[in-house]
Amino acid sequence: AMELPPSHFPAARAAAVAMGYLRYLRGGPGRGLQLRELRSARRQDIDDVGHKYYLELELEDVLDKDRTVNCTAEVLYPLGSQSSAPDVQLTVQGELRSTEEADKEFYTRIRSLEKELVAENIPDSHGNIPPELEPIHLLAWAASGYVIWQNSTENTKFHLAQVKHVKQVKRSDEDLQFDYVVLLHEMVSQEVLPWQVTLLWHPQRGARVSQCQGPAPGD
Amino acid sequence: MWLSLGIIFSLGILIPGKLSFKVRYDRDQVLHIVPETLPQVQHLQLLYSTLKLDLWKPLLPEDIRAGKDLHIRVPAPVVQDVKDSLDQHMISYRVLIPDVQKLVDQSMPRERSSHRQVSGGYDYTEYHPMEEIYQWMTQIQENNSELVTQHILGKTFENRPMYYLQISQPSNKTKKIIWMDCGIHAREWISPAFCQWFVKEILQNFKTDSKISRFLQNLDLYVLPVLNIDGYIYSWEKDRLWRKNRSPYENGTCYGTDLNRNFNSSWGSVGVSFDCSSDVYCGPAPESEPETKAVAEFIKSKKSDILCYLTIHSYGQLILTPYGSTTKPPSNNEELMQVAKEAAAALTGKYGTSYRVGSTATILYSNSGSSRDWAHTIGIPLTYTFELRDTGTHGFELPPNQIQPTCEETMLAVTTIIDYVDKKYFPNGAVLLTSSSLGLSLCMSIVLIWTVS
């Protein structure tokens, strides 16, 4: 495996995939993980399989910026096929801040709404997010994290640009359901494209994407 | 007056503990309702409890009565739902306050000016629409006419004037030029905000800041606050995430060229699309766009005097050097990298924001037709692209509370570069002393000796 400069784009793109996966796996209404710094990167070309990146990441929680957590990740981009998602393995070193209280409070608040929550343009044009929508925004990070993980290649780098629309859908089971339209900015093509994602969330079970649809051709 | 007091009182009892300026009420509305029947009263009580609305009058839901005034604050996200619900139940309402935050801002005492940069009535910590930026340019020239002149570069596709500001200290010396443009991409709002901040800082501090006063003796600063004016306006009015200009193609079914792929540097070779619907459409030919042409013509005409070309973008926290179309380094790569690293270090020193430094092709991606590459190939030695905050958390929609810190740290990077140019091309001996500056330095020496002794 060869050492890669962390400031150059191949490592940076792999790190973005790892972050997408991590946000999907560990994100929630009370936790927003972002990359503080990419400490190191290596790449290994595996014959007939693909390109594997070994990364050391320093993470922080937007809600707890005073401390950082280290994480190692392996991102394997499969050869050739455009339809296969990269394989990501992650190890977070140490404990992430517990969000049990915040999760419970959010869950109760949303469950007790008589009318289903609807919101749009998070953040707004000026970058503002009303505080009561911050948990919805962080869940959008989890939802878009899934999309980013599933759709990335070595030639793309995605970020969530904006939540265009979100609608809560009440369910008869215990999950919360949010139907999102998220706008993803892709750095190489510079396109901003809408994705529809249905996210289920539960305080103990965490986040799951149940449905996901990309932009229609010609969008 | 009573309404304002009522607002402050109501918000005051709402906010637990000490008054917190973190709670906001943007686009929250206060509705005035007079319920007429008991079922209407009950429905209002239900709305109150399920949506956790904020009763201003009466204070308690059990005091809501038919025939009695009701004032209720509705948080922005549910305003429409509440109104729909009221309509459904035939409850008439009037909007008493359309935006609570606006009223709060007006009622609260102004924060000390060291916190907010409101200079001469212009708030540099807010994003401004193009109308206001045009007015700002006029004001800046009027208020600083000894130093600033406004000039027209050309017109945009939609026929709007492209103005740049020239900051030039009167002198009989011929000066060299530092060029900086902002807003080549419409959605990168922090970029024009920085150009405006930069101008303000220079004008506020040129007398007292020794670095600035030194380089202004030798260098003129040319600042183009918004290059892609049509696109910028479009991002305010129609599509916040628009990037390109607004030239129509294919019979008006397809709009916009990426101006930063439209310059004549390896045009159309890599990192572009020939599809007009793409966000990196390079246009039908190099310099096909009026905006590109206006900038290119001007820079060509002054090229022997321009020592440094800076172009400001967002986001990514990067200082990028040539080239984008090849990884082959430019002839003065060592110098470019050295100065960029110093600039990035100065920036990081302010708030710890880390920037990456390197060529576009190694740090970001391949591209061709960029203004920065073109400026370097025609012979301007020091050319940089800045990508300002952040790294993707907010992306293009950087919140206004980050405008000031972003501008402050970036200012340090830019002045480091200008300082380097000044010291390189005008080493100490070459400063021409006019009689006034000689007199001044004599006075200064006397004062200095007097203070030191």
TrEMBL record, chain A:
Keyword annotations from UniProtKB, A to Z: Protease inhibitor, Repeat
Record-annotated membrane-spanning stretches: none
Cystatin LXN-type domain residues: 1-101, 118-219
Highest rank taxon of the organism: Eukaryota
GO CC terms in record: extracellular space
GO-annotated molecular function: metalloendopeptidase inhibitor activity
Family under the similarity heading: Belongs to the protease inhibitor I47 (latexin) family.
Entry protein name: LXN protein
Gene source species: Erithacus rubecula (European robin)
